[in-house]
Design brief:
Family: Belongs to the TmcA family.
EC number: 2.3.1.193
Number of helices: 30
Structural class: alpha/beta
Main location: cytoplasm
Distance between the termini: 104 Å
Strand order of the largest sheet: 10-11-12-9-13-14-8-15
Keywords: Acyltransferase, ATP-binding, Cytoplasm, Nucleotide-binding, RNA-binding, Transferase, tRNA processing, tRNA-binding
Shape: globular
Helix content: 40-55%
Radius of gyration: 29 Å
Subcellular location: Cytoplasm
């Protein structure tokens, strides 16, 4: 039965150049028996098949990878992928698996009986059941969504291996595929003809042609497409042609595996042109050398920011999976191409376009755009792609602009969105999740399951005439038992409790896990209604309805984000001493109290942060953006203490107003700088505060600070530093300081 069904599905898929899905439901061992029959019936060899399953074994005698490592399928095409969901239904693995199946191929899902599947608990549920919750507390809404969409969509066959019955044969009787004719070469082109002959669609050829503009500086290209459209291959062909012309092409991506197709196509083209000089001795080379002296090389994002200026062209693959500030750093390259997936777990192209495009358009680059719509691996309208987009909300979007553009804090309504209600209301679910996709650089299918099923996660929204205009995801943290707190203090990590974990394990506070709190995982406002106070209104509503001791947040620190959270009464308690490799930002943790216990926790850690930050700024944080430092220190709710002797005050005053030298007593001037920067009432300019941060706290060289802050000379920089200390001596100094000041002021008169 299964062999015949799979044969019919395979024949139809090949005839239409589409994919088909076969869902085998029942006990695990029986599903594997029928999966073997299905592969044989469809005529798909084991060498063209990948099994995605936990554990180990040779049930199908084919390549096997675990769901956690399903990203190894990126950039690859397989005749069939078999995904075993019995032990673990990981949403990200589904998204990655679907994209690897070639046209004419089969996606085979092995799942428990559909009617009982949502009520089962598996290994992925264990990741959602953070203490004190047990797996039984995890809802099954995401799996219920899978069941409903599998049954509703065309091109998906469902067979019960336990009963030997076929619920749906999945056959659609499509018309035969149309033979794809070779696209016409551009009338004028600078790349070798072979480059264009390797293109499979007009879209791909037009994209390669657009790369020709990047031979000159001050040119930028944005390439957007869904998965399977050949965008990375187009970038690879262009990179190979540019390298053959002697150009240095630097490629970066969140991980090398997503950029691997670029190197494959570039290598093939250089070999065809007899232009390949040398290659890294690796199956996945990170560098291709061309005979003409050009090269194509890979660097991680953090390294690429340092090398971008020296390359002829920077290609950023899966750009939407990187944060905006990191993308902005790439604008130091002479020419740059941003290649990104519009709908996909790697990152949201919509978020890229909303959050980064304004910065790109305001830059000195001439910006060109190219979009690829024609699929390459399978034909348009492929039913498996349609199902995956729907089931995983890969194409979720915020409400259209006219529905929310008039929203203000006074016209919206607050609502806590129940996960069962969201499951039943597809429209509202798509609006809420679409806002998260648009606002955050990496929102994944796993986040959809977390939103629908995690017992510690709550969803809060502002509604404008019923449409979601602002949304926040919160996770409950803290309230930990004495045993758990002790384990964390001893060095064991505790997933799902970020703030208590860091405050306990890294900052050595075993009491930090006692109060309960809610951490803001995500907060987003519709692009058409930003900068009106809606985010703050939503936080006010969350605060008013909270029953915990604190609200907290952890994020990659930028001046704008720190300022947003400061305005909403959140206080800095931690700055990571290392950069996040992907974002390039230092993580910040901030708290706002909701009870006496929360206030004591906030005050304790804000005070400790101020006490230690001076030492870290001259060491691990010496290169941190001074505006991040200014913002983080200004959001402490604790003013650094200045306990100087009369002698130390005279030293400070003489350096500010007279002939004294700050370098002789650096601790005095560091303490005074920290006092000012943590004082809510600031009376220095932004430039003067940057000077305090860079020269005094981060101890950067006078020459480097003068250059960074546009002082005409190192001497002018030091004179400005003395002038910056005058109002600080006036404001904070004691009688000894003021008497010393008056000596020079009166003497000058």
């Amino acid at each position: 039965m299964i062999a015949d069904l799979a044969a019919a599905l395979g024949d139809e898929a090949r005839r239409a150049n589409e994919r088909r899905a076969l869902v085998l439901t029942g006990e695990r061992e029986d599903c594997y028996v029928e999966a073997r029959e299905a592969l044989d019936g469809a005529g798909i060899s084991r060498t063209a098949t990948t099994l995605v399953a936990g554990g180990s074994g040779d049930e199908l005698d084919c390549e096997r990878i675990t769901p956690k490592h399903a990203d190894e399928l990126l950039g690859r095409t397989r005749g069939a992928v078999v995904l075993d969901c019995h032990d673990e239904c990981r949403p990200n693995a589904i998204g990655r698996t679907v994209g690897a199946v070639d046209g004419g191929g089969l996606l085979v899902l092995l799942v428990p009986p559909l009617d009982s599947w949502p009520d089962r608990r598996d290994e992925f549920d264990m990741t959602l059941a953070v203490p004190p919750y047990e797996p039984a507390s995890v809802a099954g809404n995401f799996r219920q969504r899978l069941v409903d969409t599998l049954r509703a969509h065309r091109g998906i066959a469902i067979a019960n291996v336990d009963s030997g019955t076929v619920e749906c044969d999945g056959l659609t009787d499509p018309p035969p595929r149309e033979q794809r004719s070779a696209p016409d070469l551009p009338d004028e082109h600078g790349f070798p003809r072979t480059t264009y002959e390797a293109c499979l669609t007009p879209d791909q050829m037009a994209t390669v042609h657009a790369f020709e503009d990047l031979r000159e500086p001050d040119e930028a290209l944005v390439v957007e497409a869904d998965r399977g459209r050949g965008k990375s291959s187009a970038a690879g062909l262009a990179a190979g042609a540019l390298a053959a012309d002697g150009k240095d092409v630097l490629v970066t991506a969140p991980a090398y595996r997503s950029a691997a197709p670029i190197f494959e196509r570039a290598r093939e083209l250089l070999a065809t042109l007899d232009g390949l000089a040398d290659v890294d001795q690796d199956e996945t080379p990170h560098r291709l050398g061309a005979i003409g002296g050009g090269e194509v090389r890979f660097a991680k994002p953090a390294v690429a920011t340092e090398q971008a200026e020296r390359a002829d062209l920077l290609v950023v693959d899966e750009a939407a999976a990187l944060p905006v500030d990191r993308l902005t750093e790439f604008l130091a390259a002479p020419a740059v191409a941003f290649v990104t997936t519009v709908h996909g777990y790697e990152g949201a192209g919509r978020g890229f376009s909303v959050r980064f495009r304004d910065r790109l358009d305001d830059s000195a680059f001439t910006v060109h755009e190219q979009r690829l719509d024609d699929p390459i691996r399978y034909d348009a309208g492929d039913p498996v792609e349609v199902w995956a987009f729907r089931a995983l909300l890969l194409d979720a979007r915020p409400p259209v602009v006219p529905l929310v553009e008039g929203a203000t804090p006074e016209t919206v309504d607050y609502a806590r969105l129940n996960s069962e209600e969201l499951l039943a209301d597809e429209h509202r679910l798509r609006e809420a999740f679409g806002l998260l996709v648009a606002a955050h650089y990496r929102t994944e299918p796993n986040d959809l399951a977390r939103l629908l099923d995690a017992p510690n996660v709550s969803v809060h929204a502002l509604l404008s005439e019923g449409h979601v205009v602002s949304v926040a995801l919160l996770a409950r943290e803290g309230g930990l038992s004495a045993d758990l707190r002790h384990e964390v203090y001893e060095g064991n990590r505790l997933k799902g409790h970020l703030l208590p974990d860091v405050l306990t394990s890294q900052l050595r506070d075993e009491r930090a896990g006692v109060p309960t709190g809610q951490r803001v995982l995500r907060i987003a406002t519709h692009p058409a209604a930003r900068s009106r106070g809606l985010g703050s209104r939503l936080l006010d509503e969350i605060r008013a309805n909270a029953t915990t001791d604190w609200l907290g947040v952890g994020y990659g620190a930028t001046p704008e984000l720190v300022e947003f959270w400061r305005r909403n009464d959140f206080s800095t308690v931690y700055l990571a001493t290392t950069r996040n490799e992907r974002s390039g930002e230092h993580s910040a943790l901030m708290l706002t109290p909701l009870s006496d216990a929360g206030r004591e926790l906030r005050d304790r850690h804000a005070r400790r942060f101020v006490e230690r930050v001076g030492a870290t700024l001259s060491d691990a944080l010496a290169a941190l953006d001074p505006d991040v430092v200014r913002a983080a220190l200004g959001a402490t709710h604790v003013t650094a203490e200045v306990n100087f002797s009369d002698h130390e005050w005279r030293v400070a005053a003489s350096a500010a107003y007279g002939p004294g030298l700050a370098e002789i007593h650096p601790h005095v001037f560091r303490a005074l700088a920290l006092c000012h920067l943590t004082d809510a009432d600031s009376d220095l300019s932004a430039r003067e505060e940057r000077l305090l941060v860079m020269r005094v706290l981060q101890t950067r060289s006078t020459e480097a600070v003068a250059d960074a802050l546009d002082y005409v000379s190192a001497g002018a920089c030091m004179r400005a530093l003395g002038d910056a200390y005058k109002p600080l001596v006036d404001r904070y100094g004691n009688r000894a300081a003021h008497d010393e000041r008056d000596r020079y002021v009166d003497g000058g008169e």
